[in-house]
Write a structure and sequence with these properties.
The structure is a single chain. By secondary structure, this protein is mainly beta. Helix content is 10%, strand content 48%. It has helices at residues 69-78, 143-148; strands at 3-11, 22-32, 36-43, 46-53, 59-67, 81-94, 97-104, 112-117, 131-134. It has an eight-stranded antiparallel barrel.
Amino acid sequence: MANEIERKFLVKNTDWKHHTSGELFRQGYLNIDSERTVRVRIVGEKGFLTIKGKTKNITRAEYEYEIPVADASNMLDTLCFGPQIQKIRYRVSFAGQTWEVDEFLGDNTGLIVAEIELDSEDQKIEFPEWIGEEVSNDPRYYNSNLTVLPFNQWQAPLSNN
């Protein structure tokens, strides 16, 4: 079994963007429930089918398979529900680790999230200055939930003014 151990953070500014270029991701979901998600994704000229199990702490089972890009495109266009996730992913090296920064487009424009994959849940991390609040356990930030309730539909916090 393959496991994904991942922490997710908001970003405070665009300092991460200086020496990197991004790659467009297009993805949708065939299934979302409390026990599993099934995702279809196109990155460049490659298609992928990914099955993820239920998240426990910051770990979950993950299985990913390359599929023909034409099949992935057809599934995205005909079988996936909700608005598709479109984002530009940037890979940023810092202190010997790779951060993946996702700048969301479409219905999720304005949301920028940084993720780091770990070897263990207690692995030490050095944080770049541009890393903000941790949102690893906030389900609103799961990509699968962004198809159900996109960022542009979130209610703005109430002001005390």
